[in-house]
Structure formats: structure tokens, C-alpha cells
Design goal:
By secondary structure, the protein is α/β, with parallel strands linked by helices. It has 11 helices and 10 strands. The chain has a single domain, classed as Alpha-Beta Barrel (TIM Barrel).
């Protein structure tokens, strides 16, 4: 018994008061946000239009167990529309997703200005991270950007990141499968052609996996190359190449990914983006599926807490 314990014991005994040890508080649950795209795809499958009833949308997010949400903002007006509902339902938004068009010289200034206007308003919601995927030449197109366009885009992305950093925000580059084509030339130039201080990485593990021909080798090589720039993870799983209904065991080795990040003392923000596509099983409604996914994420990334 040390001196402090001895004094506490003798004092309380003398007063005739029983000594009751303080109950340890339960650890706070691991912070995990859910991406808007998740709900868009699940709601669409159920014949519901995401965003048509904002309170109902956020009620679904909360019922699934989430306190965090990553919205997709397409205009400053959308930020203002969501603001009162996020406050009412006590949903935090530390990051947001925005589109940008940065490979066409005549459109770059307007695109950057729009992102900055959205960011200024979202800052008031608590958003500190801006995730963007510079638009492809056209959605669904197999056409690739030229070298000149990639150089232009990287410069513009760096400029956007620098301006956001001056606002106290972080820009995180995000890719889909198109950027992985042709030896991932677009993806790598957005990393190599920008200043790491201005442009970080939102690692979307499954888009990298799918874009590289379902290759975990490519995924973990990219992790080795750009680990120190990873500030956010988008989490999606598949079974035999098809997006699964619930995030858990599957094609991607997420326990290994979690371990590799922890080895480097990295704990990026976690954003669940489990979505559905053609071929995805349909056994659960959106809320039940996301609730199960969240449980599995918190188990695999438990040491991120």
C-alpha cells in the first residue's frame, strides 16, 4: 500500500465511510463515418430517393449506429440545406466529398472557386477534410486524359490543396478505377505531380483493387509508396469481385491493411462506403446492412481507437 492509498483508507475508515473504487468509464466507440454514396445506392435499391426527405435520411444513418456522415456536396446551396438537419440529428461531418474538373484550362478557375465556396460553408459544419476525384473526360468513358491534361490537372489540384490548407482544411485526392488504367498513370501523377503538404490521399482500397484488375499486390504497393499521405480510408468489400451487401470478410484483406497502417503509426479517418451494384445479394434493408457493416469495421479497426 502506497502513502496515498494509506491516507485515503485511514481517513474514510475513521469517518465510517465505505471505500468504493471509481468505475472505469467505457471507452468511446471508434469514430466511423458513413459515406453518402452508400445510402444513395441502398435507398435506390429500395425505391427511395436519397435526399428527398432529409430528416428521414439522417434518421436512417443514426438508426444504423453512425454519428458521423460524409456528405457529397455539389453546390453551396446543398451545404446550407443540410446544415439544420445535421445539427438537429447531432451528426458530425469532419469530411465531405466534392467533384472537381481540373484538366480543362478554361474550366479550372471556376471549378476551384466552386470547391472553395462549398468548403467555406462546410467549415462551419466542422468539415476539415475535402475529398475530391477530378472528373474524367466523361463518366463511363474509356477515353484517357492526355499527358498535357494530367500535368495541368496536377498543377490545379496542388493549387486547390494549397488554398484549402490556407483555410485550415486538408485536401485528399480520391480515385476510381479509371485513374488506374494505363499503369495507373493518372493516379501516380496526381501523387507525384503535387506537393505532399498540399495534397493528401483518401485511400479507396476497393477502387484501387478493382482498377488494377482485382489486385491486392497493387493495393499494398500503393500503400508502401504513399502511406504517409493517407488521411482517410474509404471502406468497401466484395465477394468474387462483386460488392457485398455487408462489409466483412471478402476479397480485400482489411485486417492486413489495418496492421500495415498501425505499423507506420497511422490512423486515418474511417469512412464506410459499402455500396450495392448489379449482382449484390439482397437479403437486408439499408439500415440492417449498414449496422452489421459498422460492427465489423469496429472489430477489424479496433486498435484505431
Amino acid at each position: 500500500m502506497n502513502r496515498r492509498n494509506f491516507l485515503q483508507t485511514t481517513t474514510t475508515t475513521a469517518l465510517g465511510i465505505a471505500v468504493v473504487p471509481a468505475l472505469a468509464s467505457s471507452p468511446a466507440p471508434l469514430r466511423v463515418a458513413c459515406q453518402q454514396y452508400t445510402w444513395f445506392t441502398f435507398f435506390k435499391r429500395e425505391g427511395i430517393q436519397w435526399g428527398a426527405d432529409m430528416p428521414a435520411c439522417l434518421q436512417a444513418v443514426k438508426k444504423a449506429g453512425f454519428d458521423g456522415f460524409e456528405p457529397i456536396y455539389e453546390s453551396p446551396q446543398q451545404v446550407q440545406q443540410w446544415q439544420p438537419h445535421l445539427q438537429q440529428h447531432q451528426v458530425w461531418t469532419s469530411s465531405m466529398y466534392v467533384n472537381s474538373l481540373l484538366h480543362q484550362a478554361e474550366k479550372i478557375a471556376d471549378s476551384i472557386q466552386e470547391v472553395l465556396e462549398i468548403a467555406r460553408l462546410a467549415y462551419g459544419q466542422g468539415v476539415r477534410m475535402v475529398v475530391t476525384n477530378p472528373s474524367p473526360i466523361s463518366w463511363g468513358s474509356k477515353e484517357n486524359k492526355t499527358d498535357a491534361q494530367l500535368i495541368l490537372q496536377a498543377r490545379a489540384l496542388n493549387e486547390l490543396g494549397q488554398k484549402l490548407r490556407q483555410m485550415g482544411m486538408t485536401l485528399a485526392y480520391h480515385n476510381h478505377d479509371a485513374e488506374m488504367r494505363q499503369s495507373a498513370r493518372e493516379f501516380h501523377h496526381m501523387m507525384q505531380g503535387t506537393d505532399p503538404a498540399n495534397v493528401k490521399l483518401c485511400l479507396d482500397a476497393h477502387w484501387i483493387y478493382r482498377g488494377a484488375g482485382n489486385s491486392q499486390v497493387a493495393l499494398f504497393d500503393i500503400l508502401k509508396m504513399y502511406a504517409q499521405r493517407i488521411v482517410e480510408l474509404h471502406l468497401r468489400q466484395s465477394q468474387a469481385g462483386v460488392w457485398s451487401e455487408v462489409w466483412g470478410e471478402g476479397d480485400l484483406d482489411y485486417p492486413r491493411l489495418a496492421d500495415e497502417l498501425l505499423k507506420r503509426k497511422l490512423k486515418p479517418q474511417l469512412v464506410l462506403e459499402q455500396a450495392v451494384e448489379e449482382g449484390t445479394p439482397h437479403t437486408l434493408d439499408a439500415i440492417a446492412a449498414q449496422r452489421k457493416s459498422l460492427e465489423h469495421v469496429r472489430a477489424v479497426f479496433a486498435n484505431f481507437g
